[in-house]
């Protein structure tokens, strides 16, 4: 992996097992908002379609002026669901990230969750010492599929170039963000939302079964 120096990992579905937490929190949110019937079904379909994007941007598209209320409710419901149902890493995620660090890589975590929710999950997973940088849209500007979080990682971790970045994620939004940023390698993984076909169609250079397979690539 001598051509690369910074690996940027998505969170839910890539390094953290989602376990349906996002959709559960969303269902609780629309229940609280009183959204029912066809409107609720259409909203849930949109959430699945835009998985990986900034949550506030998703809620803005769905609820317009009610986005802030919806986002605040979602954050509460997500943390509650995570505490009730538990959170876990994708098997081997921590050891893979540590192996990359041992090889001299900088490693970053990017997520569409707010910083507060992100840090609750980090503590639950025991990852406070794992990543050199943790980034949410509120830290960097726009969320995925915009490139802001990846570019922020390049700047903050002083990577030589965007071309030295490996962007790893499980959604089309992750791959679009990687290609728009100019990442040297966009790696899709099949532990989350999207299948290989959709990942490749949205810019993945390679699709792996899991992040643990990243160490087997010859780069």
Q: pLDDT below 50 for ≥5 consecutive residues: which ranges?
A: none
Mean pLDDT: 92
Spatial strand order of the main sheet:
5-4-1-6-7-8
Count of beta strands: 8
Structural class: alpha/beta
Percentage of residues assigned to helices: 40-55%
Q: What's the tally of helices?
A: 10
Shape: globular
CATH class of the largest domain: Alpha Beta
Order of helices and strands: EEHHHHEHEHEHHEHEHE
Tell me the strand percentage band. Answer: 5-15%
Count of discrete structural domains? 2
What would CATH call the homologous superfamily of the largest domain?
HAD superfamily/HAD-like
Provide structural commentary:
The protein is globular, with a radius of gyration of 17 Å. 47% of the residues lie in helices and 14% in strands. The mean pLDDT is 92. The protein folds into two domains: 6-18 and 88-216, 3-Layer(aba) Sandwich (Rossmann fold), CATH 3.40.50; 21-85. The chain has helices spanning 21-33, 37-49, 55-63, 67-85, 93-102, 115-125, 137-140, 148-156, 172-181, 196-201, and strands at residues 6-10, 16-17, 88-89, 106-110, 133-135, 165-169, 185-189, 206-208. Helix 1 (21-33) runs antiparallel to helix 2. The chain is α/β, with parallel strands linked by helices and 219 residues long. It has a six-stranded parallel sheet with strand order 5-4-1-6-7-8. It has a two-stranded antiparallel ribbon with strand order 2-3. It is built from ten helices and eight strands.
């Amino acid at each position: 992996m001598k051509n690369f120096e910074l690996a940027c990992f998505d969170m839910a579905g890539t390094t953290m097992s989602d376990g349906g937490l996002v959709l559960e929190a969303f269902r609780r949110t629309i229940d609280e908002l009183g959204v029912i019937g066809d409107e609720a079904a259409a909203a849930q379909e949109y959430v699945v379609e835009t998985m990986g994007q900034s949550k506030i941007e998703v809620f803005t598209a769905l609820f317009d002026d009610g986005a802030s209320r919806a986002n605040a409710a979602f954050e509460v419901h997500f943390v509650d669901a995570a505490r009730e149902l538990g959170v876990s890493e994708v098997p081997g995620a921590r050891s893979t990230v540590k192996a990359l660090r041992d090889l001299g890589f900088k490693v970053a975590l990017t997520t569409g969750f707010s910083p507060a929710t992100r840090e609750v999950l980090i503590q639950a997973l025991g990852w406070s010492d794992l990543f050199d940088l943790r980034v949410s849209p509120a830290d960097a500007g726009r969320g995925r599929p915009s490139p802001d979080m990846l570019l922020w990682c390049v700047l903050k971790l002083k990577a030589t170039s965007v071309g030295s970045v490996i962007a790893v994620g499980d959604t089309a939004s992750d791959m679009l963000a990687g290609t728009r940023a100019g990442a040297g390698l966009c790696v899709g993984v099949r532990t989350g939302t999207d299948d290989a076909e959709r990942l490749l169609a949205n810019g993945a250079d390679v699709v792996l079964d899991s992040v643990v397979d990243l160490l087997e690539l010859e780069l």
